[in-house]
Design goal:
4 domains, RNA Polymerase Alpha Subunit, Chain A, domain 2, 5-stranded mixed sheet, 32 strands, mainly beta, 6 helices
């Protein structure tokens, strides 16, 4: 048994219905020729309906505003204001909307016959490079345009700079390649122009520079004046720069005043820190080999002296503002030598032991004050015979130096010691 298939839905179903209607219309047209024209019209209407379902028409505001151009502006005329941009409402099939860009839309004002005054003029739009796109609305439909005669005048070129050179450098001059340029444009705007600014960037600059920079029309208080033309548009500017200050490490020179106690001397004078970074004019720092610190008083000192000084830099130096410096004056005794005749004593042994020679010459080293203060008997020389057997022996001379001294030379450094043999007693015989 034949079953008719169920009808499809959606676009596919619509297409099936359209083909079925066309088939029936064709059969009817053959039977009735007068219906042929009706069949064609019906087919076209169905095609339009199907196309609109598959690719619907969108009427939306274009997402980007469009700039407005001027066309046919008479020679010798110019506008003084910036033209407002317009927003366009566009009608197009969906597939054309997806390809539409700002390049396809051109908004313009026809200035043919426009008078030199402020006026509202209608905006027109052309669609380029894509078919089937219509502009249904322009917002705003008219734009304010202020038309004035063109004039020109000569204005001075005023060089300047932005930024700053590194610390220690300064700009001493900026010289443009020409002193004047021509400014042209609407009469009211040209009247406001007082100068053409030529600004050079000097950030990080340490040497002379010649640079080409664009010119900017400026009015009162340096305000920029737009919508005018400068001829030429740029100039070369020479920037002179010199090193105004110098930074360098300067040694610190520590000094002292007075004299230490008798028998003492100054061994060294040091500062901590030993040098510091100074910054100032080149003339001052180039002549400053060292920074002499205030003197530390050591009058009568017999030991090392340490003082902390807060000092200010020499004139013409900007840093440091102040500095704490520790100065140490090392004081040591004056070392000398002295010779002394010292009797030699026997240590241990029998009373009958004999010594030759009886004295020795001892040279001691030490501070002069210590050596000068030594008294007779402060120096001891001895020969140790505690464990020596009878007979004649050459033994070393031992010297015990006083405190804070040391033995340099002992002459002679040995002595002859005779220890007689012990005779047996009569009872032992």
């Amino acid at each position: 048994m034949y079953r008719r298939p169920l009808p499809r839905t959606g676009v596919a179903g619509t297409i099936d219905i359209a083909w079925d209607l066309q088939r029936r219309a064709w059969l009817a047209a053959r039977a009735t020729p007068g219906l042929a024209a009706l069949s064609v019209l019906l087919g076209f209407a169905i095609w339009v309906a199907v196309t609109d379902i598959e690719n619907p028409t969108r009427i939306e505001v274009f997402p980007a505003s469009i700039p407005v151009e001027l066309v046919n502006l008479e020679s010798g005329m110019a506008i003084t204001n910036s033209l407002q941009r317009v927003q366009l409402t566009v009608s197009a099939a969906d597939n054309r909307w997806q390809r539409l860009t700002s390049e396809n839309l051109r908004a313009y004002i026809d200035m043919s016959g426009a008078e030199p005054r402020e006026q509202l003029l209608p905006v027109q739009v052309d669609v380029r490079g894509i078919a089937g796109v219509n502009v249904t609305r322009i917002s705003p439909p008219s734009v304010l345009v202020n038309v004035e005669p063109v004039t020109s005048k000569r204005v001075p070129v005023v060089p300047g700079y932005r930024g700053s050179p590194p610390l220690g450098y300064e700009v001493t001059g900026t010289t443009p390649s020409q002193s004047q340029v021509t400014v042209s444009g609407p009469t009211s705007l040209v009247a406001r122009v007082l100068e053409a600014g030529a600004e050079v960037n000097v950030s990080g600059l340490t040497v002379e520079l010649v640079d080409t920079v664009p010119l900017v029309a400026r009015g009162e208080e340096g305000a920029e004046v737009r919508n005018v033309r400068i001829d030429p548009e740029s100039v070369r500017v020479q920037v002179k720069i010199v090193q105004s200050t110098l930074r360098r490490q300067v040694p610190l020179q520590a000094t002292y005043a007075g004299e230490p106690a008798a028998g003492f001397r100054v061994a060294s004078v040091v500062s901590q820190p030993s040098a510091t970074t100074m910054e100032g004019s080149i003339e001052v720092l180039q002549s400053l080999d060292s920074w002499v610190l205030p003197a530390v008083d050591i009058t009568g000192a017999n030991e090392t002296v340490t003082r902390t000084l807060r000092v200010t830099p020499p004139r013409g130096v900007t840093t440091p503002a102040s500095l704490d410096v520790s100065v140490t004056v090392e004081i040591q005794p004056i070392v000398g030598t002295a010779r002394f005749a010292v009797p030699i004593s026997l240590q241990g042994g029998p009373p009958s032991a004999r010594l030759a020679p009886a004295a020795t010459l001892v040279t001691l080293a030490g501070s002069l004050s210590t050596l000068n203060a030594l008294q007779p008997g402060d120096i001891k020389a001895r020969v140790d015979v505690t464990t020596i057997a009878p007979g004649v022996h050459q033994l070393p001379v031992i010297v015990d130096p006083p405190p804070n001294t040391r033995v340099v030379v002992v002459q002679p450094d040995t002595a002859s010691v005779t220890i007689p043999a012990v005779s047996p007693s009569p009872a032992a015989q």
